[in-house]
Amino acid sequence: MVMSRFLAALQLALYFSPLVSSYTWSFTTTPQQCATLSIQISGSGSPPYSVLLIPYGPTPLPNNTEVRTLVYQQFDGSSTSTSLQLKYPSTSQFVTVVSDSTGFGSGGTSVAASVMSSSDSSCFNPNKTVMPDFPFNIYPPNQVVQCNASRLWWDPTQVQGTPSFQGVIPGGQSFSIPEGQITQVSNEGTGFDWIPSVREGSILIVVAGDDRGLGTGGSGLYTVAQGIYPNSSCLTSTSPSSTLGSPAGGTYPTNASGAETTGGSSSKTNVGAIVGGVIGGLAALVIFALAGFYYIRRRTAATVTKERPMDLLQGDPEDDNDPAPAELGNYYHPEPFLATEPTEASSTYAREDVRAGTVMSGSRYATSDRRQSGVTSFSDLRSATPDYEMGMTGGTTNPSSSRKSPMPRQLRPVNIIQHDDAGVADEHPEGEPDTVELPPAYTNIRKTS
């Protein structure tokens, strides 16, 4: 367990090691038009130091006149400070990169600093556009795509020595672009292919230089694109990007109103950002946990609701229109069964004349739309059943239409036999057949004459 934590910490340290330098730098004067700009080094770097100023954004001068050039200056010997005249017009912006002998951009890169106004404007000609010592080109034109090959090329007749190229990410990492095999391509001059291992969405400045110094070939500003077919195969944990923490350069204005940065350098960790990120992550975990708890609780409540007994008299428990406690639903109101006194019409059925084989007239239910019930009296524990056919008692039957007076209902005696329980069955020896008694089937009933 301890070993795994140690390896994780070591891996994290190796990941952030390229982002941390052993020295810092800062502006000691506010950038102003045609004023002196001073830079101070702090920490233990490897002199000699150098500084590169790169114009950023459009020119504020009329007619789109560009008077800014890239400024590259080395510190004297092992000096830790330097000064130069800032020949940039007010409200324009620039990015600063400080390096030492260990490599380009080792001191960190500032965000775009804004030039404040001053009464001095003698350091540039607002009507004359400046040009770099040699131009460079990129193919495909005007774009840089993540992990997709781009070709950097130039006119060899305008270059002194071998050109070099640097990549600058404002407020992030700066690096030297590795030079591949130099080739000659028709209509593309002399150049080499480069695969940008920069994450898409990053602001990238490509700076060109030769033996005369960094920036003599000018610069180009690009936004790294993802491309039609996204490819991230070239990216690693050390791929250039914006660094954690505050940008390099200390405190300086970043817009025309004078708003300033709040950081010190790229080598310092932004504790507030890290703490905020941790708190945000914990808050997200708590929110997810509460959402999961609510979901599980809701499912459990739904299951309990489905399994509990249902009150048929009160209806659906989720129905908002529940009846009052003393009120029943429409289907549960009792309806009385209305029984009337027996009449001749209700007790007279259609008869069949046994002798003549003719059907007597008269409805089975007479003139009523409901079959009426009759009342039979019982006495001496003997039951009386209405005779289905009046002829069974020996009486004479006549059609109902020809009768002038009602005929009394004829009854016949019925014997009721109550069978006793046989009790526990006796065990019979094997081989002796059992006797099964069945009730009468009543299949041989004869009519009385």
Brief rundown of the structure:
The chain is α+β, with helices and mostly antiparallel strands and 449 residues long.
Q: Which terms would index this structure?
A:
five-stranded antiparallel β-sheet, elongated, four-stranded antiparallel β-sheet
Give an overview of the whole structure.
The chain starts with a helix and ends in a 35-residue tail after the last strand. By secondary structure, it is α+β, with helices and mostly antiparallel strands. The N terminus is likely disordered.
Helical element count?
Answer: 3
The averaged pLDDT comes out at: 76
How is the biggest beta sheet arranged? 5 strands, antiparallel
Helix content percent band: 10-25%
Q: What would the principal axes of the Cα set say about the shape? A: elongated
Rg, rounded, reads 54 Å
From the helix content, strand content and strand pairing, which structural class follows?
alpha+beta
Secondary-structure element order, as H and E? HEEEEEEEEEEEEEEEEHHEE
Regions with pLDDT < 50 over 5+ consecutive residues?
1-20, 264-273, 345-403
Write the layout of secondary structure elements.
Blueprint: H1 2-16, E1 23-27, E2 36-43, E3 50-56, E4 71-74, E5 81-85, E6 93-100, E7 103-109, E8 113-114, E9 136-139, E10 150-154, E11 164-168, E12 174-176, E13 183-185, E14 189-194, E15 203-209, E16 219-223, H2 271-307, H3 344-347, E17 383-386, E18 411-414
